[in-house]
Amino acid sequence: DAGITQSPRHKVTETGTPVTLRCHQTENHRYMYWYRQDPGHGLRLIHYSYGVKDTDKGEVSDGYSVSRSKTEDFLLTLESATSSQTSVYFCAISESGLGNQPQHFGDGTRLSIL
Amino acid sequence: TQLLEQSPQFLSIQEGENLTVYCNSSSVFSSLQWYRQEPGEGPVLLVTVVTGGEVKKLKRLTFQFGDARKDSSLHITAAQPGDTGLYLCAADNTGGFKTIFGAGTRLFVKA
Q1: B49 at interface of A, judged by CB pairs closer than 8 A
Q2: Are A34 and A49 within 8 A, CB to CB?
Q3: pLDDT at residue B96, rounded to an integer
Q4: Is A73 helix (H, G, I), strand (E, B) or coil?
Q5: Which residues are bridge partners to A55 per DSSP?
Q6: How far is residue B105's CA from residue B100's CA, in Å, rounded to a whole number?
Q7: How many Å separate Cα B109 from the centre of its chain?
Q8: Rounded to whole angstroms, how far apart are CA atoms B85 and A102?
Q9: Band of the pLDDT at B31, cuts 50, 70, 90?
Q10: Inter-chain CB proximity A42 and B33 less than 8 Å
Q11: Is B44 exposed, middle or buried (0-12, 13-18, 19+ CB in 10 A)?
């Protein structure tokens, strides 16, 4: 299995609080992604990174920010969490950004915003 | 917006039955992938298809990419309880946001 660790695995917090999720990889892959998974919507891309300090928005980026200061770590921050951000969040990595390259996923973070 | 529509959304069958799930779009894709996801885990890649009309087999699973590269199917022969999971198709979104995913087909195989 690809070495991807997401932390925390579960979190419950209140509306308006800041939340940071961490993704750590040991594969030295250039590309890292944050997705959210909601019933009926599949996986939707929030942000992705194509190198250290290089990030770009995905399909559902509003309300989220990311940072990548090291190859191995990709952080997702909810500056002021809202109930609509309750979801399961997945980090993924890939060697290249080509669409035909496989993405390897972490086991997810279940986030509940009350 | 490019969309991938998967059908059926949910499928419950007995062990030993055959099944086919579908992934359709009005867009043409350069490649398409199938993933399987088990509860509490992330998706795991099963196969990538890149050529129109391509057929790939993975044990009891047969994947086909449509001739026009707009759709794909996954056929499982003699399903087993271990096949239970969420099957996701994903495709290369040349619109700029890398890979897009369908909503998935949730398969439950009863022993």
Answers
A1: no
A2: no
A3: 54
A4: strand
A5: A49
A6: 15
A7: 16
A8: 19
A9: confident
A10: no
A11: middle
